[in-house]
Amino acid sequence: RRKRKPQDPNLAWCWETLIKVSRSYVLVIQQLPEVLQDPICVTYLVLRGLDTLQDDMAIPAEKRVPLLLDYYSHIGDITWKPPCGYGQYVELIEEYPRVTKEFLKLNKQDQQFITHMCMRLGAEMTVFLKRHVLTVPDLNLYAFTNNGPVAICLTKLWVDRKFADPKLLDREDLSGHMAMFLGKINVIRDIKEDVLEDPPRIWCPKEIWRKYLKDLRDIITPEYQKEALACLNDILTDALRHIEPCLQYMEMVWDEGVFKFCAVPELMSLATISVCYNNQKVFTGVVKMRRGETAKLFLSVTNMPALYKSFSAIAEEMEAKCVREDPNSALTV
Fold first, then answer.
1. Interatomic CA distance for residues 132 and 215, integer angstroms
2. Pick from 155-169, 173-187, 283-297: least confident
3. 293 or 40: which carries more pLDDT confidence?
4. Which one of the listed residues 249, 261, 277, 283 is annotated catalytic?
């Protein structure tokens, strides 16, 4: 873990900002080898700017497309900041040149790594500004577009620094599964918020929700509680199929800190599935893990045997929640 606050005031600001926008991500970054901590902190803030641009609904989609495609070309420009910003990200965007200053202090290899990641991710992000999620393959692609390029680029970084098996470079599919699992959890967790948007942002595939509902907005309507839960459990069950490839990926990570950086978010995602499964509160409020449970899981991930033990415990907990009446219960189990 990082033992002290950076002496450089600008770098210190970057870490403080990271804590504000994603406290949980700070914890996993601090598990990395020290040589990677500052570059990954800067990487996260650069990508957060890109993600904020993608999600800024005040900018028409047709205007966001060229901005996303061109984002990577500006990240070394000290006079530039993303033309967006809302909510908790306003300060980050307003002070974005401070991120650029730290980006320019990185070595050329790390700068190229971040630039390539932004170029690839920005292009992927434009896809679903112009199309809807209708099928499960569409959902796979959507989940990949928001996380896949990052997972692939990070994998190359691990291998280049000799923190992971070089064979991972030939298995982009495993990086993709790591990304899709995280992406699908975000879709599930945010379903109420997205449905309430005007107009609704629908990332749940029509192929799934039409089996239970005539209109996805009915998923938050009390009289459709039974159908809504069946739909929720169907989406959750689809996400579970990524677990085995995720475990294969993590078996090929050598460094303990990098392993923890990769494993903790995946384990938290499985725990989130368990909390959300057959849980009506997904449609009425915010479903979160308790802080104590989160800390316990975080501390439990030290190696593959420990990870398998934690995965197994969560799977057993989820199996106990399965109800025979659910149309997908056999597949879930």
1. 15
2. 283-297
3. 40
4. 261
Query: Does residue 189 have an active-site annotation?
Result: yes
Query: What sign has the CA pseudo-torsion 240, 25, 259, 121?
Result: positive
Six-digit token string for 90: 């306003």
b/e 43-71 (16+ beta carbons within 10 angstroms → b): bbbbbbbbbbbbbbeeeeeeebbebbeeb
Residue 1 is assigned to a structural domain of this protein:
no
Whether 41 and 167 map to the same domain: the answer is no
> Same domain, yes or no, for 159 and 18?
no
Active site (annotated) includes residue 163: no
Query: CA angle 103-109-115, nearest 5°?
Result: 55
The catalytic position among 113, 189, 212, 249 is 189
Residues 106 and 42 sit within 8 Å (Cβ to Cβ)? yes
Q: Which of 315, 306, 298, 293 is nearest to 236 (CA)?
A: 315
Residue 252, domain extent: 131-333
253 bridge partner residues? 164
pTM value is 0.90
Note if 98 is an active site residue: no
The answer to whether residues 76 and 162 belong to one domain is: no
Q: Identify whether residues 140 and 196 lie together within a single domain.
A: yes
Question: Vertex 24, ends 252 and 182: CA angle to 5°?
Answer: 50
Q: One of 201, 249, 277, 311 is an active-site residue; which one?
A: 201
Residue 2 lies in a domain: no
- Indicate which residue of 44, 72, 142, 181 is catalytic: 142
